[in-house]
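2024-03-11 09:14:02 DEBUG pipeline.ingest accepted 1 chain
2024-03-11 09:14:02 DEBUG pipeline.ingest length=285
2024-03-11 09:14:03 DEBUG pipeline.predict start
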Amino acid sequence: MAEPLVVFFYGLVTSLIFALYSVGFSLVFGVARVIDAAYGIWYTTAAYLVYALVTRLLLPLPVTVVVVVASMVALGISYYAVLVRGLQEKVEMIMTTFLVALMAQYLIVAIFTNFPWSIPALFPGSTQVLGVSLFNQQVAAAITAFLLLLVLWYLVYRTKMGLAIRAVAQDKEAALLMGINPDRVMAFTLALSCSLAGIAALLQAPNSVISPTMGWPMLTLAFAVVVLGGMGDFFGAIIASFIIGFSYQLITNLVNPLYSMAAALAMILLVLWLRPRGLFGRSLE
């Protein structure tokens, strides 16, 4: 009985963090029409920032959270102003963001070396639930991710900024005629997506090993999520995150962790072959 509960709980944690991370990737595509190949490196950057703040500077958790989120918001705004605004909807965008990711990765290696580092759990200890021992870090990550997804839903569907985001995603020219500033909306969306990547790293990286290449698997999984759920679709990304997350955890626990990423890639190919617009999204054309 314990093994199915362990798989279920950690599948739930994985799915919630995937959802939080992937929604940012999906929103960027929906609003800016950008497939951001650098999105994985923002996750890596945030993880190393958490490492530096917690293990080198010994800052308390509240200060660490504020610094990480503020830094990622500033990074997102700068990223849009310097790069995305001039290249959005252009073929060169994917290659440019890929090169940005490689440059950032080599910069991380230059600062922190290739040696894998570990971050202590921000919420140490464990809790017994139905006879299963669950790490407090994972419990806190699941609760935090769930609450933030609710906040995101409220932001996207119940606020003026959310209405502007959806308007720009649907038709940028029409939104401009309605008095909406697309540049401001896109800058906000990039800042939001980078902050979501940072929060995902803050939840996932502690009590694990970090490395300069850790963002690439997360980018692959985010791409799998948005392909499965539909590019730019909020609820599709969340549902797809649960499909990918539980599949990933089942394969990791019951088969072999080495096959988890291969299964995600196979799912991308299958969906692109059978339904290019995703299970819930609109066509990419």
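2024-03-11 09:14:41 DEBUG pipeline.report The radius of gyration is 19 Å.
2024-03-11 09:14:41 DEBUG pipeline.predict end
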